[in-house]
Design brief:
mainly beta; 2 helices; globular; 134 residues
């Protein structure tokens, strides 16, 4: 291996990664709980997650990360201290690091979320949902 | 400011960020070129991009980043040296760092991509598409 490039070594390390598409609807069909994200892929140290939401989440912020929301089904409101952002299917919003927000959904909605692996969904490890991969 | 927490400073820095949803279909309606991603949001040092694709892209890899593909419309194949990954709407795949791949679409397809800001789409700065935000 002494002559191998960093790239070749990385490719070798990844050679046994299963090559298959992640079908988001299929993943979402595997659970019913609200506000309990499931990790479906990993990307540059982040978890790519799907989640079902309904009702009001807690006001929270993240000290160290932006928070990406993409609506797959239904509608949500991301309440911010200085206004609301309304999102429907195919719409996304990034809550900047440090900004307080409260997600709200009048009816059940399905979202894709991306956060660094290990981020607590409430911004507080004592109240966060456990990390679950499916 | 000397007593302000890092979080409060970050929130202040972000206070003038416009709070609006990004509608992916609307962004995609603003251009026709293939293989020319448009940045529609920023997230933890990454560009969130939409792109229209048709035909065969070049074989390439990224030395420093995974490569996230989410199909919004149509179908694509991500060819890998040891097999193909077929993706339809609502399906995603993360090409691991260092792994050679060639995206291919028989018919036009629309994708969401996430890569660190400044990543060349061909893996080679001399042939990469320019960064364009819309």
């Amino acid at each position: 291996m002494s002559g191998a490039s960093a790239t070749a070594r990385l490719a070798l390390m990844n050679a046994d990664v299963p090559h298959r598409a992640v079908n988001l609807a299929d993943k979402l069909s595997q659970f019913d709980e609200h506000w309990a994200p499931r990790t479906v892929a990993e990307f540059n140290g982040h978890d790519v997650m799907v989640v079902k939401v309904k009702g009001e989440f807690v006001w929270h912020h993240h000290d160290d990360t932006d928070d990406l929301f993409l609506v797959l089904k239904g509608r949500i409101t991301i309440r911010l201290r200085d206004g609301d952002v309304e999102l429907g299917p195919g719409e996304l919003f990034v809550v900047p690091v440090g900004v307080e927000h409260q997600p709200y959904a009048a009816e059940e909605a399905e979202l894709l979320l991306i956060e660094p692996s290990g981020t607590s969904n409430t911004g507080d490890d004592t109240t966060a949902a456990a990390r679950r991969a499916i």
